[in-house]
């Protein structure tokens, strides 16, 4: 079955950077768009970013534009999220998901990786 394993989270000060990774298995990774979703404490899940199958087209929610970069390496079945200039409001549990809108495929989410931005 579909399995997604996130890693790379941790605690960072405002303005810092983190790079999240998502290892995919159980499906043909290159055949699907992928996305990142996050859930802040006490809030519902929020779509963050999406990427097409070949990685040529990417989109981001307004709050992270210019700071986050989604990418993928289809030879390694891995999805990435480079996060720069982190803000307090970026604190959340981050999930990768199969499909452009990961909110529509919650079953594909892994355990997530937690990002804490704190001074």
Task: Report on the architecture of this protein.
- With 119 residues, this protein is mainly β.
- The protein is built from no helices and ten strands.
Q: What topology does this entry show?
A:
Elements: E1 3-7, E2 10-12, E3 18-25, E4 34-39, E5 45-51, E6 58-60, E7 68-73, E8 78-83, E9 92-98, E10 113-117
Parallel strand pairs: 2-10
Antiparallel strand pairs: 1-3, 3-8, 4-5, 4-9, 5-6, 7-8, 9-10
Q: What form results from the Cα inertia axes?
A: globular
Uncertain stretches: none
Secondary structure tally, helices: 0
Q: Average pLDDT value?
A: 96
Give a nutshell description of this structure.
With 119 residues, the chain is mostly beta strands.
Keywords:
mainly beta, 119 residues, 4-stranded antiparallel beta sheet
């Amino acid at each position: 079955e579909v399995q997604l394993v996130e890693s790379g989270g941790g605690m960072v000060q405002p303005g810092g950077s983190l790079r999240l990774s998502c290892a995919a298995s159980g499906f043909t990774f290159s055949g699907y768009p992928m996305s990142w979703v996050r859930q802040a404490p006490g809030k519902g899940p929020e779509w963050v970013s999406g990427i097409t199958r070949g990685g040529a087209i990417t989109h981001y929610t307004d709050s992270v534009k210019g700071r986050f970069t989604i990418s993928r390496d289809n030879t390694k079945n891995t999805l990435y999220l480079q996060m720069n200039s982190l803000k307090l409001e970026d604190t959340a549990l981050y999930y990768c998901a199969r499909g452009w809108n990961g909110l529509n495929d919650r079953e594909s989410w892994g355990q997530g990786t937690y990002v804490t931005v704190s001074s």
